[in-house]
Amino acid sequence: MYKRLKAYLLYIEGLLDRADATGPAQAEWDAIAREHLVQISFFQHERLIHLIVTLAFALMELACALVTICVPQPITALLMLLFAVLLVPYVVHYYHLENGTQALYEQYDRIVARMQVEGLGDLMSPLSVAIK
User: Fold this and answer.
1) Which of 1-5, 18-22, 34-38, 112-116 has the lowest mean pLDDT?
2) Has residue 46 been placed in a domain?
C-alpha cells in the first residue's frame, strides 16, 4: 500500500508542478480534486485499519510482557519476542501511511488554492475556511 501511496503522491505532485500549458486544463482541476478526495478516503480507511491492527499487537505485546514479569515462563517470553518482531513492521508501515495521508491533505489544499486562483469549482479547503 505504501508503494501505491508514494506513486499517487508523485503523480499529483507532477500535476501540480506542471500547471502551465503542459499540465491539466483549467476545467480538469475540479475532477482532479474530486478524485483526490476519493483517494484520501481510501488511504484514511487503510490507515484506520492499520492503526487498529498496530494497537492490537501493542496490547498483546504489553499483555505478554506483564505475564512474563508476573509468571516468568520461557514460552511467554518467546511469545513476547514474536509479538515484538511483528509489531515493529506494523509501526513502520503505519508511520508511512500517516505521513503519506498528511501529504495528501497538503496536496488537496494546494489543488483547491489553484482552483480558487483560477476561479474554478466550489470545493473549499479546510485551511481556506479557517483563514477566512
Assistant:
1) 18-22
2) no
Find the domain containing 86 and state its range. Answer: 55-121
* Cell triple for 126: 479546510
CB atoms near residue 113 (< 10 Å): 14
Which of 5-9, 20-24, 48-52, 79-83 bottoms out in mean pLDDT, i.e. has the lowest?
Answer: 20-24
Please report, as a single letter, which amino acid is at residue 18. R
- The 3-class SS string of the chain reads CHHHHHHHHHHHHHHHHCCCCCCCCHHHHHHHHHHHHHHHHHHHHHHHHHHHHHHHHHHHHHHHHHHHHHCCCHHHHHHHHHHHHHHHHHHHHHHHHHHHHHHHHHHHHHHHHHHHHCCCCCCCCHHHHHHC
Question: Do the beta carbons of residue 115 and residue 123 sit within 8 Å?
Answer: yes
The domain tally of the chain equals 1
pLDDT value at position 24?
Answer: 72
**Model confidence pTM above 0.85:** no
